Amino acid sequence: MEYRKLGRSGLTISQLSLGGWTTFGGLVKDAQVVHDIVTTAYEQGINFFDIADIYARGESERMMGEVLKEFPRHTLVISSKVFWPMSDDVNDRGLSRKHIMESIDKSLQRIGTDYLDMYFCHRYDAETPLLEMMRAMDDLIHQGKVLYWGTSEWTPEQIQNALDLAEKYHLYPPSVEQPEYHLLTRKKMEAGIIDKAREAGLGLVTFSPLASGLLTGKYDDGLPEGARLTRINWLRNEVMSEERLEKVRAMKAIADDLGISRAQLAIAWCLREPSVSSVITGATRLEQLESNLQAAEVVLSPDVLQALDTLFPVD
């Protein structure tokens, strides 16, 4: 496993990381399976584990935390997130000071740790003053509950506004952005986020490198029983289209020439971007994790990168 700096911060994280979105507590409820996947990830050099309170309404934090507490805390980089509604209560959502302060304690309790290495604002909250949110994050850092705070799926303009306020009011600025990034979703990252991250020294930890499994080829001939996009309707409607499937089918020839799977090719493509600190992967089976880990060893030639650019242009 190789390790990269989180932007210009002093934090070092594994270039591949393990996340709990839609998997642990959701598609995977067997504690032994979760234990095997998380333990193997750790043993293979992954030190960054990404969770969120909204993932399976806290179950992902609980299940991953149960395994992570078996390892020395100083060897782990653990993140969680806050924003999405956790109940029907009007204040149990968003980035108000109230919700942030209450959510961090609940996440820490579920995970079983005294602090988070990274705490993400899971989306931008237009209904809460940005300065209110930033003062809350700054306070959490001063309290020792959070070491670095970050954003997820924010625009370059929103990130810059946060940086400006941090400088003006002497607050801790965001250190990391977590965007979606894969061969089928390139424009937002490559048309602004990468430049902003380089300019501001932000780390980038990207999610969904396989487009929720679409880039693996498992949906080439339809919806296999038990697959993620078969079971999660809203995600299928968001991700899947015949045009995308045609590109994924054409991608097979490139992967075959390299002697690797399409999943490994897709992850290796994300890793080729030097501004990316870590690519967050997911797994419902141990075999998936083991296959994904092999992507870190793949080096893509200029010819291969050009072929992928042609097949998956920035649109």
Structure, described:
This protein has 315 residues and is α/β, with parallel strands linked by helices. It is 43% helix and 14% strand. The protein has twelve helices and ten strands. It has helices at 31-43, 59-68, 97-111, 130-143, 156-169, 187-200, 228-231, 233-239, 242-258, 262-271, 286-293, 302-311, and strands spanning 3-5, 12-14, 16-19, 48-50, 77-82, 116-121, 146-152, 176-178, 203-206, 276-281. The protein has an eight-stranded parallel barrel, surrounded by five helices. Strand 5, helix 3 (97-111) and strand 6 form a beta-alpha-beta unit. Helix 1 packs across helix 2 and helix 9 runs antiparallel to helix 12. The mean pLDDT is 95.
**Strand share of the residues?**
5-15%
Biggest sheet, open or closed, and with what strands and sense? 8 strands, parallel, barrel
The assigned structural class equals: alpha/beta
Cα(first) to Cα(last) distance is: 32 Å
Unreliable stretches (pLDDT < 50, length at least 5) are: none
**What is the strand arrangement across the widest sheet?**
3-4-5-6-7-8-9-10
Spatial extent as radius of gyration: 19 Å
Number of DSSP strands? 10
User: How are helices and strands ordered from N to C?
Assistant: EEEHEHEHEHEHEHEHHHHEHH
Binned, the helix content reads 40-55%
Mean pLDDT: 95
The number of helical segments is 12
Q: What overall geometry do the principal axes of the alpha carbons give?
A: globular
